[in-house]
Known about the structure:
Blueprint: H1 7-16, E1 23-25, H2 37-40, H3 50-56, E2 59-63, E3 74-75, E4 78-79, E5 86-92, E6 96-103, E7 114-115, H4 121-162, H5 168-176
Antiparallel strand pairs: 1-2, 2-5, 3-4, 5-6, 6-7
Amino acid sequence: MEHWKEDWFFGHQFLNGSNPRMIQRCRKLPSNFPVTGDMVQDFLSPNTTLDKELKAGNVYLVDYAILDGVPENVIRGKKQHIAAPLCLLYEHPDNGLIPIAIQLEQNPSKDTPIFLPNDPPLAWLLAKMWVRHAEFQVFQVLSHLLRTHLIVEVFCVATLRHLPAVHPIYKQGATLNPGNPPPEHQRATSPEF
């Protein structure tokens, strides 16, 4: 709890958090993320460059392009905002996986700055929070809802529709289906209130 603002913990969560699927090794920066070596040189280990680290496989990218163009919600007349950030991370030999650049939109422009760790502390913290917000959106909708519940639902419905009731898989599915109560001998008894 006391480390949530720290860069090493931010990087740690990409591999050990709820959704480690988004991080990818980066050998070449995408054209819509104009980070230069000079911008991030201070955050790399001494005697190296961004190009060397890209070639060595020590740079990673998390790209939330899937959120680009998602319409914002309106709550009580106020437009809610959503970001589609790009986050560049570096495997520092001493500090672990740390963020070194964040862009909050997919299309760079003069109104789309690239945030760096040496920016004012609250600006850098806010940029990291927007990345976490995007991570939460992708995790809940894609990884959790789609790739867990909705995929499994297809098999549950197919099982219940196409297998005979005496089939062992059908029986197991019916037992686990919350819409169908378990057989009498499997029901737990609870006191009535």
